[in-house]
Amino acid sequence: MEFKVQSLKIKAGKYKVVLNNHDAIELGVRGGDRVLLKDHMFLTAIVETGDMIPIGTVGVYQECCEKLGDQCPLTIELIPTSKPNSVGFIKKMMDHQKLTQEEIRQIVQDIVRENLTEVEMSAFVTSSYIYGMTSDEIEWLTRAMIDSGEKIEFNTHPIMDKHSIGGVPGNKISLLVVPIIAANGLLIPKTSSRAITGAAGTADLMEVLAPVEFTADEIKNITEKVGGVIAWGGATNIAPADDKLIRVEYPLSIDPRCQLLASIMAKKGAVGADCVVIDIPVGIGTKVPTLDDGKKLARDLIELGERLGMKVECAMTYGASPVGRTIGPAIEVREALKVLETMQGPNSLIEKSTGLAGILLEMGGVATRGHGKDIAMETLRSGKAFRKLQEIIEAQGGNPNVSHTDIVTGEHRGELSSPADGYVIEFDNKRIVEIARMAGAPTDKGAGVWIHRKKGETVKKGEPLITIFADKSWKLTQALKSAEKEYPIIVEGMLLERVQTFKSI
Amino acid sequence: MEFKVQSLKIKAGKYKVVLNNHDAIELGVRGGDRVLLKDHMFLTAIVETGDMIPIGTVGVYQECCEKLGDQCPLTIELIPTSKPNSVGFIKKMMDHQKLTQEEIRQIVQDIVRENLTEVEMSAFVTSSYIYGMTSDEIEWLTRAMIDSGEKIEFNTHPIMDKHSIGGVPGNKISLLVVPIIAANGLLIPKTSSRAITGAAGTADLMEVLAPVEFTADEIKNITEKVGGVIAWGGATNIAPADDKLIRVEYPLSIDPRCQLLASIMAKKGAVGADCVVIDIPVGIGTKVPTLDDGKKLARDLIELGERLGMKVECAMTYGASPVGRTIGPAIEVREALKVLETMQGPNSLIEKSTGLAGILLEMGGVATRGHGKDIAMETLRSGKAFRKLQEIIEAQGGNPNVSHTDIVTGEHRGELSSPADGYVIEFDNKRIVEIARMAGAPTDKGAGVWIHRKKGETVKKGEPLITIFADKSWKLTQALKSAEKEYPIIVEGMLLERVQTFKSI
Prior knowledge:
Two copies of one chain form a homodimer. Chain A is an alpha/beta fold. Chain A is 41% helix and 19% strand. In chain A, the strands form five sheets. In chain A, strands 1-5-2-4-3-6 form a six-stranded mixed β-barrel. In chain A, strands 12-15-17-13 form a four-stranded antiparallel β-sheet, with helices on both faces. In chain A, strands 7-10-11 form a three-stranded parallel β-sheet, with helices on both faces. In chain A, a hairpin with a 3-residue loop joins strand 3 and strand 4 (42-50). The longest helix of chain A has 18 residues, at 291-308. Chain A is globular, with a radius of gyration of 26 Å. Chains A and B meet through helix 3, helix 5 and helix 10 of A and helix 3, helix 5 and helix 10 of B.
């Protein structure tokens, strides 16, 4: 059928058109069905229905308009067409049937090309979450994710890489690990993420010091020039399926294991990594509650690495408490730079960074087994790591002469003080992150939380437990109010709640 | 944060707003999160993000605009808020935890109020499909579906009802069953559906004779006046959750058993039915492939009925072949009316209709056990059923003096003739329905397929197998072309495909 075209000037995130209910019935399609748009070319689009579009007209979202050419045609023919094959493969998953490599490749391809509706994507993610995948399927998913985007191929080897499973606040170690590795002559093209539910991702941190948005080619060039890079993976077209899956997983608060594995290893595979160390924070509040869970995850990552030709080692780390004493972009960078410049700073940060860097130095053949951490520590202590970070900052377009004292943190500050003398007996990572986010992190770079007391430490009544930093005063107010309403840190002997009358219970 | 309001003049089907990516980050929300719209009232909306809306502006879809008042306000404050609790309950389902009655009630309520995103709805439907539900959960789901919409309460009892599981083409029996029951003094307020993937639903058929869109009150009044009604359920607000679920199930081509059960019984419960007969067509191509599957389904339906205080009986019927010889609204009505007027017509139609009506007459106490079918047959033969249907047609606003010869069928007709002498050895229900739909059914009332030969019947070369009817000539052409390309009926000895050269294999 021929339709008048109405350009909607709205992006749908997919190739989508809207038809009047009456026309949809006439054409024999329903919401979620596909039509071919026949103009000078064929384009498949997803159908929405509604009664806001007049009969005889098709509403065309921006993506379709752009694809159809500089100007949307005045009329267009619509022909009902079948759904992509991958919808049938998702149905197979729902019926707990195994998929072939080719079927998984087609699903990933359709995800990247935005050919699947939200309903179909959600069915894929939900089925993956419920049934999981076999080792073969996970390998194929990873390979499909690697192949669906840009790949970097280096001429020299080995290429080193590092990943943290996440879930522990203040985990700024990449700012130390990357320069330590690069300072020892190994290449480490680190792509990283921005915070989604956290207060600061590695990309948010690095952005305080230098631009982080680069193409795959630029990442390769910077790495070859100075040995390392800390870039935002989201700006590249490396393993792009991941971001699209997160758009569906985030609203459901799930992270299916098979997709977690594939997404980590696809990003490493796509940058050509040979040796990868993976930081698995373990403990309450992290993604990995117990050591046994951690070992299982480590085994899966190592096996998947083997299948893909990558050497993987995992380090289980203490995740129930933040790394260092800062949460939020600028104050985390300040803490990390101070360690690099002066070796002054929290033990948890120095020990964890050199520990992981040490493993990579051993894997890369720069240190003999058992001596990696010493070399990492020496690289840090000698100032070589700091000078290397300065080179990386410069190569990424930032100011290399930066010092920790230059980092500007939020001008609006407020303290939460202890209502009692005693030990810190409870420390709630999630609440701390929530408070940092309310104060503006990760968008407001100066916002965050400085932790004065961690679990097990003593505090006197009236002494500060945390200081909240914010760039905007209303955000400080909102964060403070929330912190005072429900303390993120519990001191032994402190009243948890005061019940004044029987009725208030 | 305060935003300028831009009315989008597009319906989203839900309360939705669009924010610029930058503003979403600033506000701390992502696609699928919820915001409170604070004006003279509070309204919760789902967030979409994009870069087509300017920074500082919120794009407001039509439903939100309407809710906000006659005119959209110029500015509005947005406050991030949490997702509905039902999202957490869906997550519980994904983790295979049992839900409470209250949790299920909240999910159904949020489905009906359009508070859930497509991603969340799909996760609900996919989890239901994969895990199923316990009998308790199915009962609660049914009760929640009944309570989520309008209910009819009759003063007289018993109230009779009938449902067909579907999947068999030409199943026009309600046009006979309803008047037979009503003619015997029992009340039967039948709500029915339009075809979704079929060629004609009962509502599509009845619409050839009279209007079918009524409110719950009107359905009650018509039933009390003439004993029966055949209305379109979709026009009422009876058990409205069902239509919303189908919008998600249809694109995935699934029909989770727990939702099938709940949706059937909720519609019966909501009209106050006391006695229900359920037609379960069994056979290849139907929803119930084997007798064992049919018995299992019957057991589940009877048990659910007991829990809800309804008497349910099931009849397993032959579903591998169409009922009667017609597929498509007008020609099916013509075939049914001819039986009512003259007792002339296919045995499959007369036997099935009187069989099911007989069960209802026995359940309603009008016939003693074993004699229901005889009374049904007598009601039909005597013309009482036809006169009752005329009364129902009149009460619904149609012309009661209609005869089968008045029914106008599609003026464009084409035949598919047998290429060989022999028996019909294969008869493909699905292809027949596809051809009827290509010819315009169910939207074009005159479109459909007349079946000259059913499975096991003999045919001579050149004799017609089917006649295709269409209201529009281009639809006839398209249906004929498709039928000739892939025959829906296979005659023994007929060439299935001619391979002319080795290369064409």
